[in-house]
Amino acid sequence: MTTPSKQETITTKIWKEIPEDDNPFAAKVCYCSGFDVYGDLLGKASYIEYLYLLFKLEPPSQNQAKLLEGLSIALANPGIRDHSVRGAMNAGAGGSTHASALIAALAVGAGNLGGGREIYNMVKYWEQCGTDINAWEQMIKEPPVEERADVWVPMEHAPGFDPSGASCTLPVKQVLAYLAEVGVSEKLKWLQANRLDLEEFAECPLAMSGIAATVFYDLGLNPNQAEMLFLLLRLPGAAVHALEQEQLGWRRYPFFSEGLKLQEYHSTGEQE
Hints:
By secondary structure, the protein is mainly alpha-helical.
């Protein structure tokens, strides 16, 4: 008598599959939060609506979809000044694999300076402060202790603000104004109305990360979801710039335009 093998299952509220009749390892129908992805959503839902559904397990309202779509455009290419994009460009110029370029962008763009962890921290600020300007002043001037000090160093500036900025940039103002209007967002309107006071508390201007964190909070994402989605939305720019630099080659990359000059040293340290 043989003992039946234990059936291994994966617990998820996000996904359900019905197998093909002739192949239990292939899916015939795939459901995302109860919606038939290929029989119902395909051709009827936009990518942004599906993305929202994946994270929130419910369809977005029209305003929520417009809010996320606008933010996605604003974040899709952070530009060649951004550290994460430069990481991908370095990988492309150096001839690394495409996956390495994306991993470089994720690694560099995950930290406290305009990165994913900054988003996490500002969403936490929103959870604790809401639209109480006095609470924001105290939070910014007396920031909480980092909960994962074994992984993350303490923030050196208020999350959502640019410690290197001289003033709030035009793109940040444009994105804030557009999203506050199109998303009918109370939080963004409050941020817009109180920006100057917040910048005074932080002693630096509002950054795009501050808008992103506010949008994620307004959409009901928790800090972990916000951090993950922020990293995801910024990858297209990193990808295309890495591909472009790969085609141009390292000789046309700014840091190596004059080529590499190697010098040989003896063990005594004398230059030859």
